[in-house]
Amino acid sequence: MELKWLEDFLTLADCGSFSKGAERRNVTQPAFSRRIQKLEQWLDVPLVDRSSYPVKLLPNAVQFVPEVQQLVARILELRSDIQREEEARHRIAIATQHTLTITVFPGLLNVLREARLDFSIRLRSVNRAVGADLMRDGAAQMLLCYDTPADRVDQVLPGLDRLVLGLDRLIPVSAPNLYDSETLAEGCHLAMLRLPRESHLGSIVERECLSDLLEKYTVSVACESAFTVGVKELAMAGMGFAWLPESLVEQEIRGGDLVSLEDHLVSADLSIALYRYGGTWTDEVEPIWALMREFGAARTPVPPRGGDWRLKGRHVPAECGTVP
C-alpha cells in the first residue's frame, strides 16, 4: 500500500469526480483511476460505486473518510519528525557573539563549506552571556566569542575546551573631522558613544580604558548602545568617539571614514576564542574543531599598535567637542 493511494482516496471523496480528482492530483484520469483500484485491491473491498454518474463512494468508504484523514496526517507528521531527527544529528549549533558574526564567522563558515563535511550549521547570533547559557543548556555545541584573561568563559563554565582563532583589539575611533591631535593633546571635552557596562565589550572598556580616559578628559555620553555596528555608523557620522573592535572598523579606517585615537587613548587586547564542551558532542564536532584549529593558525593577526591608521599630527578644521 502506498501513501499516495490514501491521498487519492481523500481527493476523490472531496471532489466526487475522477476527472476533477486527477486534475487536483496532477495525474491523468486513467492513472488516478488505477490508483483507486489498487487501494481497493489492497483492502479487498470496493470503495466506489462506478455504476452511478457522477461516481459515488460506497457507504462503507464514506464512513471511514475521517479516520483515513487522521491516518494520512499522522503519517506525514511522523515522516516530518523522523526527518527533523535525522537533520538534528547532522546539524551543529554555533552561538556567535554579534560582532564576530560579521567579522569572523563568514570566513569560518567558508572553511567548513569547502571541507564538505556531513554537517549543517545553525548560527545563533547572540550576546556573549546568552551564548554561554546556550552552551550550558546544550542548545549550542560551540561558542565563538571575545574574551580576555580576566573574563574567559571557561572560568565560569568548567569543562570547556578553548581554541584561540585570532586576536583583536578594542580601539578608540572617531570621524576624521571631529578631533585633531592638538586639541586631543590639550585634554579637550570628548563626546563618547558608549557600549553599556553590562555588555561584554562595554565591561572591558569600563575595566581597561575608562580610568585613563577620565584622568585626561571631560567626557559626556552622546549615545549608549550595545549594537556595535550601529555605534560604528554613529561614529562615522561624527556623533562622538567609541571603542570598537579593530576588525569591525578596519575597512573604514583604511578608507578614511574613521581614524584611530590610539595616540591619545588606550586600547584593550582581545582574544577570539572558540569553546566547546568536552563530552557528548566531542566526537561529532571533532572534524569541525580540527578545521577551526587550522583556521586559527592561518589567520593573519590585526595590524599591531603603531601602524599607520592613527591620527598623527592631523589638523582638521573642526571644533573639538562639537557633540554635546
What descriptors fit this protein?
disordered C terminus, 14 helices, D-Maltodextrin-Binding Protein, domain 2, 324 residues, alpha/beta, 7-stranded mixed sheet, 3 domains, 46% helix, Arc Repressor Mutant, subunit A, two-stranded antiparallel sheet
Describe the protein:
Helix 7 packs across helix 14. The protein is α/β, with parallel strands linked by helices. Strand 1 (48-49) and strand 2 form a beta hairpin. The strands form three sheets. Strands 3, 4, 5, 6, 9, 10 and 11 form a seven-stranded mixed β-sheet that branches. A two-stranded antiparallel ribbon has the order 1-2. It has a two-stranded parallel ribbon with strand order 7-8. The protein has three domains: 3-87, Winged helix-like DNA-binding domain superfamily/Winged helix DNA-binding domain (Arc Repressor Mutant, subunit A); 88-166 and 273-298, D-Maltodextrin-Binding Protein, domain 2, CATH 3.40.190; 168-269, 3-Layer(aba) Sandwich (D-Maltodextrin-Binding Protein, domain 2). Residues 302-324 have low confidence and may be disordered. It has 14 helices and eleven strands.
